[in-house]
Task: structure prediction
Amino acid sequence: MTSPSATVIVEGLTRLFDGPDGKPFRALDAVDLTVRAGTLTALVGPDGAGKTTLMRCLTGLLRPDEGSVRVLGHDALREPQAIQDRISYMPQRFGLYEDLTVQENLDLYADLHGVPQDVRRDRIGRMLDLTDMARFTARPAGKLSGGMKQKLGLACTLVRSPDLLLLDEPSVGVDPISRRDLWAILADLIAHDNLSVIVSTAYMDEAERCDDVFVLNGGRVLAQGTPAELTRQAQGLTYTATPPPGTPARFLQARLIDAPERIIDAVPRGGDVWFVRQPEAPEAELGALLGDAAWHPRSEALEDAFMLLLRQDQRTPHPAPVEAEALAPTGNSGQTDDAPEIRVRDLVRRFGDFTAVASTSFDVRRGEIFGLLGPNGAGKTTTFRMLCGLLPATSGTLEVAGHNLRTGRARARSAIGYVAQKFALYENLTVRENLEFFAGAYGLGFLETRRRVRAVMAQFELEPGLLARTLPLGYKQRLAMAAGLIHSPPILFLDEPTSGIDPLARRAFWRSITSLARAGVTVIVTTHFMEEAEYCDRIAIQDAGRMLIVGTPREVRDAAGGGGDIDMNQAFIAIVEQARAAEAQGQAAA
Amino acid sequence: MMAGADTTRRLTALIRKETRQMLRDRSNLMVGLLLPIVLNLLFGYGLSFDVRNAPVAVVLEDRSQMAREVTSGLDGSPYIDAIHVDAMADAERLVREHEAVAIVRVPSDFSRRAGAGSAAVQVILNGSDTTTANALEGYIAGAIGTAMQHRADRAPGTGRGGATVIQRIWFNEASDSTWYLVPGLLVIVITLIGALLTSLLIAREWERGTLESLFVTPVRPHEILIAKLLPYLVIGAIDIVTCLAAARFLFHVPIRGSLIVIFLAAMLYLAVSLLLGLFISGKVRNQFEASQISLLASFMPATMLSGFVFDLRNLPWPVWIVSQLVPATHFMPLLKTLFLGGNNWTMLARDSLILIAYGAVLGIATTRTLAKRLD
Result:
């Protein structure tokens, strides 16, 4: 069992923390784990599964309460420094010194790791090549985009060749292109340096690249094995359902995911719905549930198995979906049904010489879910801020709920609910106090405030007396949504609402969104999770300030080429790269 | 020897990093270099306990030559502006209307009683401002005493009034409060650097998450500490030189002790002050709280309880005990003595040992806050 080639041996590891209620809870509960040398191992699991705690125990930064941790032959409790001398670790938020330049950050970590001068030049050169950052060596790290920061973090982590590399959710908040680059760097290093790597991730396509996968939930190891072994657990349970023509796939998806006793998981996929059934659910009941939708088996994926494992685990919290019909806007925006709720024409925004948004036009109809996608720094947030009236446009026309943002900003704003990327909540106020504050800020009267606060708390299943600080991430996000909807706005803006949120909470979140849209709320959303684009009626892809394409998910995928087989992730990358290549060609020709 | 080379390299890298960060943070650099100059000008020129041109009502009820001579000293004093009034009632009105801060009254029987050797001059002070009142009392007595003395010298035999008090103030002969405040100012400046600058350093790394990445390198806790200390020791040394130069050339405060001893003692106190800031920073891990706490825990007591302004012997004993825990209390008197009194080796040895002990304890405690643990 303690084979000499094992890089990491964890036995009976338990680690307690003080919970928000003051009682201790087990972040890790008797975890056993062995990692073979020279392999790529993934840790997957929802928020609070214990992934980060496990990583920190491996680095010797956290002491186990029970059990033993041996890394590279050293005991993590007795000889943490011996481990730290030989590993490289990239925490979820890598500590770049924002006031130091790219080069200075790299040099600092090379010095701290004692990389000899002759090796260093090659190594840093290679890292700059792989991350495509050689042009930016003199730029302060604080002035890099999110994706570039993450790549620089990885480069700093890898300035020397460690015996073991630990990566804690390296791709959170990173766009698909940067994410692909990140994994290309890893693949290159694994091939050349014979690295052992442990990576925690929320992306199943990343876990699928690994040799071994550990599924964690509630501090315990639910399952382990190769991706193929794990995937097989969902064998025979996976299907594709096609809704009758004219019905949006998300209506069918909502119906399926609302029947957890028969359906484990359902997601929209290219106009169809991919679902996983409960093993014991009888065929007849499934047929009744699916109604007039055609369905046929499909081959299983790792994500299906992951959802199966989580749903079968008793300790998984089941966030109930939000039935949002009651939240339907009471205030009519005054628009006739066929007029667009949002109208954007030739929108431009410049900051000095820099054009953040270039000549952008699109419409959003009432009750539509409109997705705004793009790499880090594409201009999504700038577009968003202009739509919300937080930032004036340099030129162009912007109409929200029939009000021109140049002349009727206040009226347009009252028709908007806005959920910022970092939920703007008051951490030391309770759920009720937060909601009452936002109701007041939107000018609701006393009785109206009471009615609305009670309504949104009931809809989002929020406990009125809890401090916002003590809420788990998924519930913080619900509270932020509730606050954004407190004045029954006909339009809801969501800026990366699911960043850093696990698959289970994301499904519950999207269930609320589709429900809101059905009730007539217009939703505009940005996201880094490309599969979430499938929930949208239409999506727009932005890059370097330009609108590359606007259309339904299917149209976008068709435009990307490659037949109907590619997923949204690949389609996104293809479209952005085609546009960039065309741009480069245009410049070369000129 | 390999380990030594590694340590040196890591230390160099860390010091370079801290220095760069310090130099790039303009606002903090301004605090570190400009604030001492501002404080020097403020305390040196603006704040003073000395009374100058204080309006004093003079009532001569005795119109004799002798009475006039006695009060002539008041007219010549740079500290006093004599306002001559005819009646006591006028003088009282001036005081009530804040036109005058004191009354000097020469009673009608002054010259008669002077002959008998029991002459008295009445001095009434406005006690609502005790500091000014105390200072004025001295000036008025001095001015009148000088005049009496002159008179006695010129006409021997007429001034038989028994013994005459001859005042002499040691160390600060002019009893100039600038002499008293400026050396203390050096203590305040050094304390502020610790409270405002180093108190942010470790907390900032916790807040930005950089410490977690730094921990998982071969770096040792004491190396992080040393690297954070050194650049600010340099800033502090510049401030010390600034303060000493200002004291010497701007305010003409005598420096009677050895300049090198003063500098070294100040550097020792600087190290203690920086370490206190770093310790608070490492303990609370939050920049805002760290800066609040260090202002309360180091700067406030350094101004109030170190003997900068207020005499410690007047403190009630619980406050006195607290004052003895403040590092500045063990440096303030030493520095004042070194400035105005000269080298006092016993005092120097005792206070230096106390400061070294503080430094050692804070150094170890701060290194512990940097133990590579997140729990």
Q: What stands out?
A: Chain A has 19 helices and 24 strands. Chain A touches chain B through 34 residues (CB under 8 Å). The domain at 6-228 of chain A is CATH 3.40.50.300 (Rossmann fold). Residues 347 and 396 of chain A are 4 Å apart (CA to CA).
